[in-house]
Amino acid sequence: MKYREILKKYWGYDDFRGIQREIIESIGAGRDTLGLMPTGGGKSITFQVPTLAAPGLCIVVTPLIALMKDQVANLRSRGIKAAAVYSGMRGSEVITALENCIFGDYKFLYVSPERLSSEIFINKVQKMPVALITVDEAHCISQWGHDFRPAYRQIAELRKLFSSVPVLALTATATADVVRDIQQQLAFPEENCYRMSFERKNLVYVVRRTENKLQELLHILAGVDGSAIIYVPNRKKTKEVYDELVARGITAEYYHAGLSPDAKDGKEERWRSGKSRVMVSTNAFGMGIDKPDVRLVIHTDLPNSIEAYFQEAGRAGRDGNRAYAVALYSKVDKATLSRRLADNYPLPPFIRNVYDSLCYYYSMALGDGLNCTFEFALNDFCHKYHLPILPTDSALRILTRMGYIEYVEEMEYSSRLLFIINRDDLYRLSGLSNEYEALITILLRNYSGLFTDYAFIDERYIARLMKVTRHRLYEMLVSLSKKRIIDYAPSKKCPIVTFSRHRVLGEELRFAPEVYEERREAFSARLNAMIGYATCDSECRSRMLLRYFDEPNAAACGCCDVCRGQGGRVGGEQLSADVERVLSLLADGAMHSVVEVEALGLPRERLSAVLRHLCDEERVAVVDGGVRIISRV
Questions:
Q1: Of 370, 525, 587, 619, which has the highest C-beta tally within 10 A?
Q2: 214: buried, middle or exposed (CB in 10 Å: 19+, 13-18, 0-12)?
Q3: With a threshold of 0.85, does the pTM exceed it?
């Protein structure tokens, strides 16, 4: 079946857009391919269409659980078999999904990068008819990217299992260095990159300088209708800003990585459906969220890089209609950003001290420790050795990259359960309610060996069987534990530290340039670029962003705060006194006929250009032959 026929049959589109066709044809020819497509550029089509056009399965590697769920549901709604494997699934559910991909003629398997190294995945995937490997958020594999994730390096091992299968890497943000590094890390035999312009003509970039960010935030929300995302720097701020909005009658949600999966799903659904207008979040929210009608994205604090800002700002206006990306900037923000360098890349003496302290913390002798793993409490560790939390966390990550330890910030431990009375005593128990007897029956029917060893249990599954809430189930399990009937260890997320080498003295640590100094310099350059974007008042915002992503010849947008602040540059041309003359006439806010405007004496072509420009940036409206000024951000 031809590519366009597949597109029409499953998605209803008559033709491809942007660089979709070029990427699809490259993959169809069996070539490793890198696609650079901005948010909303239609990345999923580039791997879904060629997979449907050929026999076999596509493995999609992505860190975004929300995207996995959405795309699997979307594909299934079109009659296409798809599965996903991600954290939080029961073991039996994982096995079922993987075996469906072996025997069930499935076309897509979505998997997180962390799953690639699991023994069960490696065993099962080798039996699958894999035809394509797709790497989403591919910048995460590059050590020069803004969001490097070590688990992505496992993709190279997956390639070894399928050496003849083409790889499609996709990302929305990548500089020239990252583009080269992605292709090297994925072992492309030759460079093959298709680039779509990152220009977003419908997105207005604005930097607002203010010393009262909350007041400015409320002012902007009042000036722009529609759905909004507000990015804040930490979890505490999400709740603070949320409380302020709700107190003023604005429907809102708050979101961060520390919330339970159920809480996240509920908040996301209320925002996505329009029941809540604003989502206040850390950068944990947004990736993989398909909501095209977001009209406003506000950053109360600047991210660490242009890449992160561009990606988050790009979640506005994916429907192609006018939208706004606003960054709030105060006098102290430059110093705040500069401090992030010290927090993220503390100096070597500090890192050596953290390593030595970590060894003391676990009473690790010189020469010992290889492959020893411990639960780790960062706050307790920092308190005991009088260390600042943020630089210490960064030092542990740097020591991980250096190969001395493996620091995992959140290792999820599933709930465990063991019956501590024997089977005969259990059956002789009396006085338990029907509800508790039903729980015990469900446990015994669904899990084996509960009288001899701990078994991992899934509370969500058990709660569904019992038709109770997870909280009620938790109360019942705790109660049985207190009665000394079971031993119940609830699930928890806990950092762990593994010593990857025998312990050495801190003074003997080796700081390889590519692990520390070069990465520190790259991080510093990204911070400086972000500061430059926020403080510049002489160059179009869109042009600055595009130049950063290697599009040096972009025209000025004509609608960002810089362009508008320069008197309304039309198409990036010289200052136009014509704009000021038209705005002066309309300043009273009344509707003026076109005849009145023409009476200003402007040549027809110049007047048309000015009105088009002012309409595009929504400063005036032309209605029924009349023109009036309108308020806008």
A1: 619
A2: middle
A3: no
